[in-house]
Every structure is written in C-alpha cells, then in structure tokens.
Design a protein that fits this description.
499 residues, mainly alpha, 28 helices, globular
C-alpha cells in the first residue's frame, strides 16, 4: 500500500494524463455503445414523423427498420475507417495532434445530433454516427499506443488496463444518462446523444499541456532532450537513464526508424508469432460470448420476474459490476501477470457458459432456476472484466516494438470493428437456430484459444520490449536458432565443454 501511494505521488502527472487520454479515448466508445439503445424508440418516431412531414405518407416498417439498422451500423463503418487510417495519421502528424483533431470530429457529431430534431433531419443523426465512429476507431488506437509508450515498465500493466476501465466507465455513464428520470425521454434524446461532445472538449482543452510520448520523441524524431524533458514531466524527478537506454536498444534492433506499414508487418518474419497471437487474442475477445450474454440478459431478467421498468436498473447493476471488476483488474495485473489472468479468466468463463446453458434449458422446470441464470450472468461479466478484458490490451501493446505497434493495433482494432458488425448481423440468426445452445459455440472457440495461449504466449510482466522480442525470436526463428547454436555455440557452452 505504501509503495502504491508513493507511486501515486511520484507519477501523479502520468495518471492525470492517462485520465485525459481515457476521457477522450475509449470512454467515448463505451458511452456510444451503451447509450444508443435508450433513445432508439424516440429516434424511430422522429424518423417516422419527419418522413410523413416531407412526403405526406407514413414510412413502412421495413424501410424504418432498414434506416435504423443503417444508423446503428454506420458507427462500425466509421470505426473501421478510423482504425485503418490511424497508422498513417499518427506517423505523419504525431499522436498528440491526431487526438486533438479527433476531438473536433466528435464535437461536430455532437452538434449534428443536438440540432437534428430542430432541423427535422434524420440524415444529421446518420452523419453524426459516422463521425463518432471514426472518432472512436482512431481514438481507441491512439489511446492504446499513447498509454503504452508513456508508462514505466513497472506500471505498464496498471496503466494499460485503463483502456478497458474507461470503456466500462463510458458504458455506466451511458446507462445512467439514458434512464427515463434523466435524459432518456422523448424531448431530451438529442441532448443525450450530444453530451458525448463534453468529453471531447475536455481533452481538446487539456491535452496541449502534456508532452508527446517519449519513445516517439527519441526514436522517430531523434529529440533526446525532448524525450528527457517529457520523462521528467510525466515520471517526476529521478534518474530515467535506464528507460532511455531501453529505447536506444529497441531503436538499434529495428530495421527502420519509420513506422512499419501493415503489409510490412505481415511480411516481417520476426513478428510472425506475435501477429498470430494478436489475432487470436483479439478475435477471442469478440467470440468470448459477452455479446451473447448481453443479448440474453433482458430475457433472463424478465423470466426471473423483474418488471419491464426495473430491467434498466438491473442492467445498470451489471454495468457497475463490470466497471468495478475492471478497477480490480488494474490492481492485480502487475501482481499475477497478464498470462495468468487470461488463462484463469477464459477457463472460468467456459465453466460459466456451460452452467448458463444448463440453467437456461431448465428455467421453465424449476422456479428458482432463472435466479441462478441471473447470478451466472453477473459472474460471467465480472470474470470477463477482471481477466481477459483487462489483460488483453496490455499484451497487444507489449508484443510489438515502437516501429510495428501502430500497424499491429490497426490490425487488432480493424478485426474488432469487423467482428462487431458481423456478430451484430449474424448472431440473431444463430440464436433463432440454436436457442440457448448457442453458448456452446463460444465454449468451443474459447477452449481452442486457451490451448494456443497456454502453448505460445509467454509472460510479459516486468519485461522490456526488447526482452519480449528476444523471447519470440526463439519461436519465429527456431530452426535457424538451433542451427546457429550447433555451428556457433555460446561462450558458456564452450567453456563448459572445455571444463
């Protein structure tokens, strides 16, 4: 506890910057994901009224559903485009300038939503959703890179879990603001959608007072003095030469100082194993069953006897549990390690899904079975947030060097947005075909991922980026490594043979 308090005092400016990055980063993504379901009925009524006023006819149900689906899915399209452009924009303009420009997009989206009802234009909602999606895609990538680069080695796990922490914070805030007692009403829904611009305004005003990331200053711009000044500003007084030496070593091992493109990263054999693990971890998050849990939650709560007006509060309770679990993850990740949280988390999630499939299948035979399902849903959400959700992103950041990190995160986030769109389109049909047994698909996929993670993922806790890369070199160049060991044995093996 004393060590934590001393770190809190020494790195107070670092934690303050992480808060600023989070508010304008993954917080906005979490808010938009949870908020959009609350004003859905009012937006559909607004589209219907606007259509009737323009064309003097009532819009048919199929067209209305199509337009609403397009409004929802445009967020994912914008997010995908923002993600794939993050590498180019951050390399050309720097992460700090990109984030400030990104905030202007969300502010423009907020104005578009806020005045859409007054202008009687549902097209403004569509434009706002696209801009917001682009903001979320670009912001999540830059947020992850920035946090991973400004953090000291001993706090890298704690700070990297702030991404999932701010996502869950945004979800909770969206669930609270969307309640009918606050902004989830027919007259205030434009304001509900527009308040996300406040977070962007906060980051736009405060970010100029913080430095660019130290690795970017030293390894891409060659500014040693600026790097030292940034480290002193973020980490406080002290000797930071060790961190600078690690950056210099990493720079010396890179093939080129300029960031690698996505194609170059895919072709680079020294990153082959890391890239495969990145894809496995990223896809497993999407196919872990968390989307299915949220899809089934309302039906389970209703079957358990909760009235329709109380279900939003139960949902808020599950979101609060997820937020508290992500806070717990940030404190235990540097103690237990990323690999252990992934393995134990996914193992317990498989158990919860099997039990939940059983309870949902028997919920009409025993009156107490729905309450077991509710408890299992809460446990699944807590385990997911405390383990895989919090540990996945730190691993993604730590697996790659400065030159390849932006492209790696672009690949990871692109898979996230594509998966979000595909699951949203396909999953309802899977539920219709398999019913409660749809969870068994996720059980099988998580089990396969568990085996691959156990077999190939080393622990990255407390290691520098160059040390992690050297471990993976044994996997990426195993045949060449064994051959070199036979032809040119190391000094210790030579001396051992002589002895």
């Amino acid at each position: 506890m004393g060590s934590f308090l001393s770190d809190l005092v020494q790195y107070r400016k670092l934690f303050l910057m992480i808060f600023v990055l989070g508010i304008g980063g993954t917080f906005s993504y979490g808010f938009q994901v949870s908020m959009i379901s609350y004003p859905s009925m009012y937006i559909k009524n607004f589209i219907n009224d606007t259509w009737q006023e323009r064309y003097h006819s009532v819009i048919d149900e199929q067209t209305l559903t199509l337009m609403w689906s397009f409004i929802v899915s445009t967020f994912s399209i914008g997010g995908f485009l923002g993600t794939i452009s993050s590498r180019y924009l951050s390399a050309k303009y720097g992460k700090k300038k990109c984030l400030m420009f990104n905030n202007l997009l969300l502010i423009a989206a907020a104005f578009s939503w806020g005045f859409s009802k007054m202008a009687k234009s549902f097209e403004m909602i569509l434009i706002g959703r696209f801009l917001c999606g682009f903001n979320a895609g670009l912001g999540c990538c830059l947020h992850g890179q920035y946090v991973g680069e400004i953090s000291p080695k001993k706090l890298r796990g704690f700070t990297s879990t702030s991404l999932s922490l701010f996502v869950n914070m945004g979800k909770c805030f969206g669930q609270i603001a969307g309640l009918s007692e606050l902004l989830g009403t027919e007259s205030l829904w434009p304001l509900l959608m527009a308040i996300g611009g406040i977070a962007a305004s906060v980051q736009l005003v405060t970010l100029p007072f913080f430095p660019e990331s130290p690795p970017c200053l030293l390894m891409q711009k060659g500014d040693l003095e600026g790097c030292q000044k940034a480290l002193k500003q973020l980490w406080g007084e002290g000797n930071h030469q060790g961190a600078i030496d690690d950056m210099v070593k990493e720079q010396a091992t890179m093939k080129k100082i300029k960031p690698m493109s996505v194609l170059e990263l895919i072709k680079d054999r020294s990153m082959r194993c890391q890239l495969c693990l990145l894809i496995i971890i990223g896809v497993t998050i999407q196919l872990s069953g968390i989307s299915a849990i949220y899809f089934y939650a309302f039906d389970v709560f209703r079957t358990a006897g909760f009235t329709q007006d109380r279900i939003p509060y139960i949902s808020l309770g599950s979101g609060t549990c997820e937020f508290c679990a992500s806070i717990m993850c940030s404190f235990i990740i540097d103690r237990f390690g990323r690999r252990m949280l992934l393995l134990w988390g996914y193992g317990l999630m498989v158990l919860m899904l099997v039990l939940l499939t059983t309870t949902l299948s028997l919920q009409h035979q025993f009156f107490w079975m729905p309450y077991c399902s509710v408890a299992l849903i809460f446990l699944f959400i807590i385990i997911f947030a405390a383990g895989p959700a919090g540990a996945s992103f730190p691993i993604m950041v730590e697996l790659f060097t400065q030159s390849s990190r932006s492209s790696a995160l672009a690949i990871s986030m692109s898979l996230h947005w594509v998966g979000l769109y595909v699951i949203g389109m396909i999953f309802p049909y899977v539920v219709e075909s398999l019913g409660t047994f749809c969870f068994l698909i996720f059980v099988g996929f998580i089990s396969i991922s568990w085996i691959l993670i156990y077999r190939f993922l080393p622990e990255t806790k407390g290691k520098s980026i160059i040390e992690i890369k050297e471990e993976f070199n044994n996997l990426n160049f195993r045949k060449k490594y064994v051959q070199d060991m036979r032809e040119n044995p190391s000094e210790k093996y030579t001396s051992c043979t002589k002895l």
